[in-house]
UniProtKB/TrEMBL annotation:
GO terms for biological process: amino acid activation for nonribosomal peptide biosynthetic process; secondary metabolite biosynthetic process. Residues 412-486 form the Carrier domain. Keywords: Phosphopantetheine, Phosphoprotein. CDD domains: A_NRPS. It comes from marine sediment metagenome. This is Carrier domain-containing protein. One of its GO terms (cellular component) is cytoplasm. InterPro entries: AB_hydrolase_fold, ACP-like_sf, AMP-bd_C_sf, AMP-binding_CS, AMP-dep_synth/lig_dom, ANL_N_sf, PKS_PP-bd, PP-bd_ACP.
Amino acid sequence: NADIILTQESLSPILDGLGKEVLLLETLQKIDNPIQVSMHDANGDATAYIIYTSGSSGQPKGVPITHRSLINSTAGRLDFYPNQPEAFLLLSSISFDSSKAGIFWTLCTGGNLIITPNRIEQDISKIGALIQKHSVTHILTLPSLYKLVLEHGNLLNLGSLNTVIVAGETCAPLIANLHFEKLPNVGLYNEYGPTEACVWCMAHRVEREDGSKGVPIGKPVAGAEIYLLNETKGLVPYGAVGEIFVGGPGITRGYINRPDKDEVAFVTHPFSTNVNDRLYRTGDLGRYRKDGAIEFLGRADQQVKIRGYRIELEELEKVLLSESTIQNTVAMVHESDSDGSKLLLAYVVPNGNFDADAVKRSLKCKIPDYMIPSRFIVVDAFPILPNAKVDMKALRDLGKSRDVTQTDKDAEPTNSTEKILVAIWQDVLNFSPIGIHDNFFEIGGDSILSIQVIAKARASGVSFSPNEFFEYQTIAELSDFATSKKGESKKAETRYSFKHLVPIRETGSKPPLFCLHSGGTHFFFYNLFAEHLPSDRPVYAVQASGHEGKPILHNSVAEMAKDFIEEIKQVQPQGPYHFLSYCFNTAIGIEIVRILERESKATNLIVADTMADYLSMFAAARTQIRTTALLGRLKSDPIKTVVNFIKSKMFKPLSKKVKDITSSGSERTIRQLHNNHIQIYKSYTWNSVEGRVNLLLTPKPDMEFNSKLINSWDKIAKQGVNVIQVNGNHDSLFLAPTVEITANSMEQCMQKFENG
């Protein structure tokens, strides 16, 4: 029933033929004439949105939220909070339900919603700068992130704040103390609520005394019913521990197509006369304080929550035991005594040779990244209590240190910068020893902890940005980068002497694979793909130029291909050459092959589930969709539609010029690159290549589409098309778990080409 579909370039082919107006995020510009959409008659029971929970077992559950639930949740904020948001800084991802609080609360009360750039949460100074720039009054964030803002941010930038909301994690007393020390005149609120209860169901205004007696999750908000029940669904008395159940109009009626989960999570309301009323079982334990507020006491099961993600430890252990090199395992969360930060650990009794890196690579194909343990602690056997159960306290003590044999002697710091960074890492990660070649993100680091490292390093005179930290993930690399003139270490010079080539893996004896950019600005998804190729296969991404500074615009596809080849030959002077082409870049792939064929170079082109002359196909589909939409509007209101169509044609050139003037530098660069590529692709003449084209092909509901796809390449490749069937779909080719199949299929294809 949708009138408009907002999507990405890579997803657009699956929408062809739907007859809908499709808008692409990458090319979205200000609309000269607002698109007219029909208003749907939605009642309170109609679904407003669907959000997928993180999934404690790695299998997310779809939670449909009705208009009634959303209205009830939003109206509750008007009742609870004394100040409505004039400017709300949206720090949480759109995939987290907490973002819905900021979005609907702010827009329904006429406030400004400030959308943050990617990775902004990893640079505290930029968060403060945004708050100051937009006079932000309200933020909602994880307690752990707010702690870093208080510790490392410039308080002068936070003067406009009047409301800070923390949610998604336990709010430690330390955070309350820090808040009243740094921002005593700003209201601090602790919210609690599962996704199934439409963001929140309890809240508490944090008081100064909470810093000594603990921060509760509060009392029920308007429209929410909260019950603390025992095992027989009876009410527990004040001071006793009970499981938290939620009722009222805010809770969802169940999961999408998961009746098995519904039976467990949603129970008949024991205190209602309406047989249809249900309570949601949170699995959290709570206890009433004397003031009527509820304090959170952990989980009733083995489920834990880390950085907003729910994880079932027992389910994680089952996945770990499926690894052939693990004989036994215990998963556990290590919580810091100082700030309450959490780390997911796996204690392992190995079966033969245990390789933590290999296990992590395997787990990436089975479970989401947030479920993969930060550290693996290898033990000969688990400590056992007299009752034959595992001694969990003894295991926790093991997690605070690491066997010295894991750190090589030559991994000790060799200069003052390395010594500073080692001390900082040991302090932040809360264990030692740490070697200078240890990878921060493989020994327990994450994005939140990286903020602490950056801030502490800067205070010690060692400076690097979040992006640089993600590039140089060991102490040795960071030290080399930070101490060399202008940060240009030998490694940096090697990696960034190219305009187009981005090394993903530089080592290996086999001929490299060159992965062409997808549409001008995208190549990051090739990182996971490269991990699943053999370690002796070098991999390079080939990006569009101009991403840093002034864009370099090409006059033709042939000119772009020649630029790419010039740098490729610096890495690999002779063939055989392997190229991967995906989505928008098929024209570049073909032109590179044609040039190298004229030089008698052996060239292997692999196309990932994309039609030749992709842009023409896309443009035709887009024209069809727009024509269908225009005809529909003509039918409903012909005069207004004609007038608006003429106005849009008259003012579109002027609007484009205004946008070019007012856009930021980075936005303008990306748009210039994109528009440049569109123009040169349109003018490209498709000629045949002498060799064969290899086509990775996924199943499609419309089998005729696959036939057209194969035929499009058959017309270009004189030696025909080698079709390689791959399970999955077009958009999952480079995502787990399909990426492993994609990598294996491509490696076989490359080996076959090399062997003749």
